[in-house]
Structure formats: structure tokens, C-alpha cells
Give the backbone structure.
Amino acid sequence: MNGSTANRATWTQQFAIAAAYAACYELARYLSFSHWMLTAGLRLACLLLVPVRFWPALILGEALPAFENALLNEPQFGQAWALSAAVPMVLLWIPVVRPLRQRWPLFAADGTLRVGTLLTATLGCTVVNAVATCMTLEAALLSNIGAWPEISVGTYFWAYMLGGYLGALTLTPTVLALHERANAVAHVSFAGVWRSKLARDLVAWTLPVCGGLAWMALATDDDLLRQIARLALLLPVFALALRHGWHGTAVGGMLASVALAATGTTLLDPAMIRCQAVLALCISGTLLIGSRVTRRATQAPPAARASR
């Protein structure tokens, strides 16, 4: 293969990754709101897993929908807002993630997840996300003085902090767990997935429990019962962590987060935000516990290990 052919193949890969990332990003953005940003989880997972040589594709893939959004809404929010909104957030996250990837590998020598590295990256990117998004919000408010007097930048800062952090914990650990499991087998098949004890636990009781608790929170008119049902979503996370390590925490946390988000009926509902904050803290702590469970399981004799 000559140099020009190699360059064409590289550009083809870059554009293919950019297109795939842009499609996933649009879907995640459609499902997100201020205090639950799935785009943060998608973005962080890609920065942690995608080789650095393909990061330009991530920038391009996010720049296209960001530019489109800025162009369409510029008449309403102003030119200053449009310029700020057109900057792809992944470009601002790279200075946080790149040093972490260089100095503190995401996985230890024995293959176990370094949860401290993951949480550090999550928190650092969340702060950048909240500051940048509030600057964009402030630009819109300054361009339309008095248009939205009910909006407080300070209030939205904490909403963006929670949304970015919980959104990252909703998707990123699950993507990392699936990536690790896929690399551990020669090929992925339905039969192989079904033999996994984690998959069986998800189908047998985790999904029904999360679905039932979400339905209870939506169906009841009692505020106390609604909060109890929301907080009860933590129980499957703890149970899966003890049974399956950090993989269980990752998938259980994702399902609990999705179920909790489904119970929201109004934006910036204080009761909802309190439950989301508790869930984010519990997922963080349970990831640490789950990583120790996984480490003990990998150090056990081969005969004592059950199918994961």
C-alpha cells in the first residue's frame, strides 16, 4: 500500500467515525436535559476508548450538530450565544482527558478498572462542561436582557454539574464494561451473552424491579411514596455490585439512572434532583466497592470462578 492510499484510508476512517459519533450524539442529545446529560457519557466514553489519532473525528462529529444548532437558534439567542454554542464540547474536554490517559492508565496491570482515574476524569470534565455551558447561557441572557428573568445562572450551574456527572456515570462505565467483556471473548454471540450470570440477573429481576419502581413513582400521587420508590432504585445497584463487581455497578447504575429520569415530569424538579444527586454519589462509591469485588474474583483460583 503506497502513502496516498494509506492517507485515503485514514481519511475514510476519520469520516466514518465522525458520522457514527455524530449520529450517536444526536440521539443522546435528544434524550438529555439539563440535569441528565447522556451526551457527557457518550463523549467521555469515546475519549477514554478511542485512540488519540481518531480524536479529530470526534471533534468533527460533534462540531457538525453544534454548528447546526447554533445556526438555527442564532436569531433567538443572539450572535454571542451562537459563537459560544458552536464550539464542540469535546474540544474543551481533551485537555482534561489527555493528561489522565498519559499519566494514569484507565486499567491496572491485572486488567481491573482504576475507578479513581475514571471518577477524576468524570469530575474534571463535568466542571469544564458546567462552566462552558453557563458561559453560553450567560451570552444568551446578555443578548436578550429581561427576556428570561426566571433563569438563574447559578442554579443552572449546579444543574449542569449534576447533569454532566450523572450523565457520564450513566453511560461511560457501561460502555467500558461492555468493551472489556467483548475483548475477553473470541466472538460475541447471543448464546455467550445468555450464559453470562450478569445478563440473566438483568433479565430475571433487575429490569422488572427498575421498571416497577419507575411505574410506582409515576402512578402515585403521594410525594413521600414517590421519593421512596425513586430511592429504592439504589437497591439493584448495590446487589449487582456485590454479585458482579464494577460491571454490575455500571449496568445497574445505568438502568437505575434511566428509570429515575423516566419518573420526572417537570424540569428542575427539586425532589427529582435530590434523588439524582444521591444516585450519582452512590454509583461513585459503589464503583469503588465493585472494583474490589472484581479484583478478588480475578485473583480467585480458576476452578472457583463462575461465568460472568
